[in-house]
Every structure is written in C-alpha cells, then in structure tokens.
Design goal:
Structural class: alpha+beta
Strand content: 15-25%
Shape: globular
Helix content: 25-40%
Number of helices: 7
Radius of gyration: 17 Å
Number of strands: 7
Strand order of the largest sheet: 5-4-3-2-6
Length: 219
C-alpha cells in the first residue's frame, strides 16, 4: 500500500470517483467479459453478456450514451463499455465547472473515464475513474497504469450536468430498454468464455494507493 499526499480539491474528486466506481459496479454486476476473475465468478455469463452488449452497440462503442445503454441492459462490459457508464455517471454527479472525459489509451488497449482532461490538464490534478480492474479505485492520472501511453486519445470531453436530467436514466430509454436477459441467453450458452486479462489494480504500482490531505506528496 502506497500513501500519497494531495490537495483537498483533488481528494474530493477522488472520493467522487470511488463512489462512481461503486455505482458502475451495481449497474454492471457481471463485470467484464475479458477479465478472468469476472468470468469465473459468473460461470461464464460475463463473457456471454459482454458479447451480446457489444453486438448490440456495433461500431458505435465510442459513443458513451449508446454504449452505456447496452452495457447496463446486459449488466456486463469490457473496459470501453464500463468507461462509458462511468463517464455518464460522472457527468450526472459533477457541476458544469468540472470537465469529464472519455479516454482511449490505444497502445495499452484500454479505456477509462476521467475528471479533467489528461491531454491538457496536469497529471497531478486529473482523476482517473476506471471500474474495469478487479480491485478498482479512483487514482490520479500520474499513478494510473496507462500514464505512459503515447497514443492516448480523448474521445469525449464535456462539462458536468449535475443540475440537469440524469444521463444514466436517459440512456436506458433512449437506446435500448433494460430488460431481463434469461431467454436471450439460450442463444449464446455455447459461446466459449475467452478472458484475456487478469488485471487487478488501477495503479501502475500494482497496489492500493491511499491519498491523504495530511501529507506532502511522497509519490
């Protein structure tokens, strides 16, 4: 466990990020179809449901609202899918003074949401909200495992809308109604599980980070 000192504003955003991660976990209870632990935990359902959600979205995975709607409908999704849900949850939580981004690290082959813009803002100030790892936590961009990716792309970057209609609720009705999936699973029960990752931590240090406002930055 690593302890890092930060300023109170960033700590507030980290706390919101952790709350949003918990919210995403409830909205996407089966986890990721490409995480070994999630596939085992769900007896293969995470893989099958992720495949169904991604087929529903098709090539529009980079449109957060459409992607999040399918991911929530089936309760499962890989990094880009869970990042879309986190992006909408953050926009629901944060005021217009805060910026929310949907990012792709192409070299690392990973997607995540952020508070702030990692292309333009300080790595000490941007907070990564990444629900995909098995032990997720909000971390600063400085500590995230994709920090060194030289092909980072911010796909979306917009202000928060805490005082507006819920984007999460809107995505459920605008694109794909959230329904039971038991009958649909009949058509994919023989789909083999194909997890490719055993990724446990959000931090590059591969451990939990404790952020404190009582310390100077030893990181």
């Amino acid at each position: 466990m690593k302890i890092i000192g930060i300023d109170p504003t960033v700590k507030g955003y980290l706390d919101i990020g952790d709350e949003v991660i918990e919210q995403v976990k409830k909205l996407v209870p089966h986890g990721a179809g490409n995480q070994v632990d999630d596939v085992k935990r769900t007896s293969g359902h995470a893989d099958r449901l992720t495949g169904m959600a991604q087929r529903l979205v098709g090539p529009d995975w980079h449109r957060p609202m459409r992607n999040a709607a399918a991911t929530i409908k089936y309760g499962s999704g890989n990094c880009q899918d869970q990042a879309a849900v986190a992006y909408l949850c953050l926009r629901d939580r944060l005021p217009s003074a805060a910026n929310v981004s949907y990012c792709v690290a192409w070299a690392t082959k990973h997607s995540f949401a952020t508070i702030g813009n990692p292309e333009t803002d300080s790595e000490d100030q941007v907070v990564v909200v990444d629900p995909w790892p098995i032990h997720p936590q909000a971390v600063r961009w400085k500590e995230h495992f994709c920090r060194g990716d030289n092909r980072l792309e911010v796909k979306r970057s917009k202000s928060g809308k805490a005082d507006g209609p819920s984007k999460v609720e809107r995505c459920k009705t605008k694109h794909f109604a959230t329904t039971h999936y038991e009958q649909e699973l009949i058509f994919v029960t023989d789909h083999p599980a194909s997890p490719t990752w055993n990724h446990q931590w959000c931090a590059a240090a591969k451990e939990k980070i404790v952020y404190s406002t009582d310390l100077i930055d030893f990181g």
